[in-house]
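Side project, low priority. Logging it here so it doesn't get lost.
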Amino acid sequence: MNAEGHKSKSLSQHTWEWVKSIAAALVIWFFLRALLVEAFRIPSGSMENTLLIGDFLFVNKALYGAEVPIVRARLPSFREPQRQDVVVFDSVEEPVNVVKRVIGMPGDTISMEGNVVYVNGRPLDEPYVLRTGADSEDPRMRAWQVRYLVNRARETYRPTLWNWGPLLVPPDSFLVMGDNRDNSYDSRYWGFLGRDRIRGRPLFIYYSFDRNGLLPLPFVTAIRWGRILSTPD
């Protein structure tokens, strides 16, 4: 074999090695993303001040049992979602991921009176809640809530943002709400969240950027340095 042929063969071998290395890295990345950790960006203010627009999170997908790609089966979970967990889940209306807080658990009787949440007749301590708006009525709330009412006449039921229920949470379902309580499109409007839609829980914020920052050099000054590596509670 002449020198040129040897050089060509060597180049082909190196190229093949690079292709195999890149393919292996992509496969590893795919399974890590699918089964363990996935990045997520906060697009709205519904979880303020726990999570802000411009927060970038890593989400622990293994905690509640990751879904195996293609076969759509679930791995065993380390634990089930608990009350006041912040969870990332598949929207019930659009093909997007959403983040809210678990408020009602399966079997709970839950209501809101005067903007205070009651679970099984007891007020829920919610130090994370941000209240910024006013009470309002929305027909979407009554449309689904009336089916789950307990100890209340359905005919006269007129729920509002601050006053609704009591509702009985069905098995394998959760009631979730945003911490920015008066500016969150959540279970109060579209109903209970099925367990099968919950994907994971935020691990920590790896980057945070204030898109409304006005100082010069925004790529530095607009970074919320104090939020990086913090854990949403």
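Brief comment: The longest strand covers residues 198-208.
Revisit when time allows.
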